[in-house]
Amino acid sequence: MAEGQKGGLSHFGSPNYSAVGVVCNGAIISLEMNVKGVATSGPVLTNKNIWLKTTWSLDGLSQYSCSTDGTNYTPVGDPYQMMWGSYRGDRLAIYNYNNKAEEGYVDVDFFRYDFKKSR
Asked: For the whole model, what pTM was predicted?
């Protein structure tokens, strides 16, 4: 990652959005939670690999989690209430951008979407 770069996982619908990801400030890479444009810094990351996960149900309550080993996940931030837009559903995004320069990259090895029907 390069200075100013951000990358992660996002939920977005009209008018609300949320995201969890990593941000590069100088030599420091840290976790960041963003809900409706309000960013909260998380811990500094020392591992080059990170797994991001989000879970939610029909009530629209979403919880982000992260892992440094792909097995043990820790919740990130408070649960987030998604709002339905002009359609019934939510959009997911994997994002990567840099507002400071046209530099940096992230490798995304896979994306998995599971749907579990509850009764």
From this structure: 0.85
